Amino acid sequence: MAEKIKVALLGAGNVGSQAARILVEDNAVLEKRIGAPVELIGIAVRDTNASRHWNADPSLYTTDAESLIDAADVVIELTGGIEPARTRILRALKAGKSVVSGNKALLAKHGVELQAAADESGAQLSYEAAVAGAIPILRPLRDSLAGDRVTRVLGIMNGTTNYILDQMDTTGASFSDALAEAQKLGYAEADPTADVEGHDAASKAAIVASLAFHSTFTIDDVHTEGITSITADDVAAADADGYVIKLLAICEREGENGANIRVNPTLIPRQHPLAGVHGAFNAVFVEAENAGELMFYGPGAGGAPTASAVLGDFVSLARRLVLGGPGVPETSHAQLHATGLDNVVSRYSVGVLVEDRLGVLANITRILTEHGISVDSLRQSAPKEGVAQIRMVTHSAKDADLRRAIAVIDALDTVREVNSVIRVESEKH
């Protein structure tokens, strides 16, 4: 049984500073909840003189992360990036020290290696803060639903893209204008690539799928599409049909042994619970065989909300240290394999820019029919300078069939371009 829990904090950015603040200001409360005193023994940073979002005692800041790790009982890693975070976490875990991390990119790429090190030493690796900020989603998937069979997870897991798409939907803004507003408000980085190209959400999808399906997936298993191709016309057309466009992370079982994991823009019906998630908020919608449909909603980023998730993991680990029990290994007994897109079945919204000539529409619908795809609804804009915009929503079809049909349609002399292909979520809600 630990007499005192010594904590090493790696990183003092926005989240790290807020985690330090909670450890210091709420120290007495944490001690009561854990059952032992908590001591923040140091904060590893690159520059001890840099300005912080919250300033701890100057004596706590150090550039010697390794010495801090060696002296700690629990390590909280909030530096981000792959290295040196990976090396430092492995150092801690191999020494039997439990680790809390919010590093989604690292976990999505090297999570299997890190978890193996934790399991071998009996340490615990926790990372609730890596997905959806303050929203408790990983612990429910790992623990609360352990006796159930999760079949699908849909998530708005990136606040930046949700803010951009929400602005486009509610104000009619273009993508570039909505992005500029997000950057002005601090929702988007100066280089927004990781967010708008879907990479951030893909990292989270790999983590969620691994826990939901008791398997091991990495970011390389996630098919990823961003939102940079979404136009104001796409958003307006979706609205006219009763839909809203969201960037969804989708994890779903495929047969008995497979799982499809993807991040892509999706049309969802206005009445779906996820359609009401506005601004920079996140939400995760879980479908399980016995529990049914569950939704988790809240702020998906920000220093204090994310630090809340970090401290939740820390308290859980510290309690285990006080009680003297070993870490609980992750279960990946199912070992589903990642499948490609070919067999994914979905409805699709397809936009085609065509010449205003006789028989164009008939040719397009014929090609779709030849590939086993039927059209549910179709609208054509009034021609301008001999060119018209066609927008169709198909019935359910395999992704491979849709892609083959699109290739044939795009090659028609009367087609200027297929300028939009967006998946459509079920209307069952």
Structural descriptors:
elongated, Alpha-Beta Plaits, 429 residues, Dihydrodipicolinate Reductase, domain 2, alpha/beta, 3 domains, 6-stranded parallel beta sheet, 12-stranded mixed beta sheet, Rossmann fold
User: What is the level 1 CATH name of the largest domain?
Assistant: Alpha Beta
Distance linking N and C termini: 50 Å
Structural class: alpha/beta
Number of strand elements: 18
- β-strand percent reads 25-35%
Overall domain count: 3
The shape is: elongated
CATH architecture label of the largest domain = 2-Layer Sandwich
Number of separate helices: 14
Specify the biggest β-sheet. Answer: 12 strands, mixed
Relevant CATH superfamily of the largest domain: Dihydrodipicolinate Reductase, domain 2
Radius of gyration in whole Å, from Cα?
Answer: 24 Å
Mean pLDDT across every amino acid position: 93
Give the proportion of residues in helices. Answer: 25-40%
Can you walk through the features of this model?
- It is a single chain.
- This protein has helices spanning 14-25, 27-34, 65-71, 85-94, 104-121, 138-144, 159-171, 175-184, 193-196, 199-212, 232-240, 303-323, 360-370, 399-410; strands at residues 5-10, 38-44, 61-62, 74-77, 98-101, 125-126, 150-156, 223-224, 243-254, 258-269, 281-288, 292-299, 337-338, 345-355, 375-380, 387-394, 397-398, 415-424.
- It is elongated and about 80 Å long.
- It has 429 residues and is α/β, with parallel strands linked by helices.
- 36% of the residues lie in helices and 26% in strands.
- It folds into three domains: 5-133 and 303-323, Rossmann fold (3-Layer(aba) Sandwich); 138-300, Dihydrodipicolinate Reductase, domain 2 (2-Layer Sandwich); 345-424, 2-Layer Sandwich (Alpha-Beta Plaits), CATH 3.30.70.260.
- The chain contains 14 helices and 18 strands.
